[in-house]
User: Fold this.
Amino acid sequence: MHTKSLLNRRRALYLGLASFAGAGAVGCGKILSQSQQLQAVYDPKRDFTVTGGASLKERAAAKGLIFGSAARYIDLSSNPEFAASFAKECGMLVPEWELKFGALRPSPKRFDFSQGDGLVEFAQRNNMLFRGHTLVWGQFMPDWFKNTVNGANAEELLINHIKTVAGHYAGKVHSWDVVNEVVDPSHGRADGLAKTPWLEFIGPDYIDLAFRVAREADPKAMLVLNDAGFEYDTREDEGKREARRVYMLKLLERLKSKGTPVQALGIQAHLEGITTGFNPKKLTNFLRDVASLGLKIQITELDVIDQKLPLDINVRDRIVAGVYEDYLSLVLSEPAVIAVLTWGLSDRSTWHSQYNARDDKAAVRPLPLDEQLKRKLAWNAIARAFDKAPKR
Ligand code: XIL
Assistant:
């Protein structure tokens, strides 16, 4: 990460950093308090200057990369100003909600494609690529799922779901998150797989099955396995997180060796604004290992959580921007990384306002544009990372 600049105690007190309490994390073998962590990541002099006014999608495209973002149909369809910003900055659109199982399946027999179709049209109208998210996941299932699905019918349901959805959008999708969040060593299985209803009812082969059915239903889309939590090691979960990378590699190796048509790993990258448990070397090696299996990599859900950062917007935005630039500079040095998507474009609509709200109730600021759709330092940070990235 960026060279650390330590604040003196007076400045730390002024910024309100020293009052931060909470669990320590591990950095370079030392336990750091949260205020020390903040001092380590906050650099008031760091330069975030950007040359020219080109958009993120243009800067990415200049390097053979794709930049895009997640959005909801309701936001794009009801807010022309937001839609215009989105079309200006993004070369790819991924539905934040509309293609999840629970959103598409109001009842066991019905598929509701209306909002998903609206998003595809928006993407086409604005010359954007479209990502599908997600065909198979253990979360956000409709209420009827629990009472309807069992060991006897799950496989048929999975196959039918993928055939219908991937078939409906065939030819219009750049890449599909075929399965989402499949590895979770904390669930205690020897293979590291997350315990989900699909695993319980079908067994570990549900992953291979999902990819094969998706390939048949949409022969053109890039098929992606999307997962999270590859970034941090802390003393508490070092074993688990290390194992997460290891288990994911093992899973990808297994899938490749049996001819599963998986083409890319999606790395969600919901990053912490305050942490010291980031090990650049481990992440770089992991990306290399994934690439050496012949897989592409997409950064699929990037954002930076500012929940525990100081209230002062100046300080918060600088820390968040620093995390963006450091992370992207690192991952973009791996040539297998072909796309970067943020999980939302503007702070006016982000899942973190619900899932990682601040104790002081201040609005969260994890994304490249502010609530007024103005470019923030985080935008500069992403732009700088694209400008510095090696060409694909
Ligand atoms: C989240 C959406 O942002 C929320 O609005 C929704 O309520 C729940 O899902 N990992 C994923 C995404 O793969 O689908 C999740 O999106 C965020 C975490």
